[in-house]
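chain below, 269 aa
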Amino acid sequence: MIIDAHAHIGKINKVTYEKSKDMILTSMAKYHVSFSLISNGDANEFTSKGYKVRNQKSQIQASQETLDFVKAHPDKLGALLWCKPHFETADAELERFIQENRAFIYGLKFHPFGSKVAADDPRMEPYYKLAFKYQLPILIHTATDRCSSILLFENAAKKHPELTFIAAHMELISDNQEAIRVVHDNPNVYGDTAWVPTKIARQTIRVCGSKKLMFGTDNPVDGYETLNHPFYKSYRSHSFKKLVGNAKYERLMGRNAIKVYKLPISFKP
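prediction:
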């Protein structure tokens, strides 16, 4: 069984919202992914060049689109709500939405680069309160840009030991070493493998233990064949499984996500 703990719908790169839904389901079937946790990139607040996204969708609009897709395929998909801390906040409307749909929502998603709001920014605090109230893990994009630094992520994790944090990408565009330290040093921090080489995954398991890392891909950021990228092809390979060992491999590829996100599914070897 493979669980993808970091996937998307919506506009990511050249992928459009409608096409992304077909890409998710088609690629999952082709590459034997049993379950994916998805968030909606249409909630992004700023472009890659730093401009405000025009005609952007609200948190609720983007979350409703995510939820509609999840409800149509609840045995295959779960929702992570992509939040907008720059232009919005964790208000009563968002809390109501979570209350009414909690059975399909497994966590909150933040993209500091796309929001220009770091993990330890005071504007994140209302979301952290909401996450604690509803026991929702928090997936945060980490990278080497100013807002996405793993050190700012660590500040938030240390300030909120009552919450569960997942460092998406293990600090993208880095050697991942500081991220490995952060995952090791903080009991409430986990990592995912989106664009993380298998050699770094093996190192993370060796240093941090086999319960602190989970498989994630950013699917379908590169289209229908994202899951066949050499990075992810190598994760599915027999040689990698043999190097890691069966029990550790099962935790990485599914069991850890089930435990951290409290997914209502049983792992099938």
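Residues 6 and 216 are 4 Å apart (CA to CA). The longest helix spans residues 246-261.
thats it, cya
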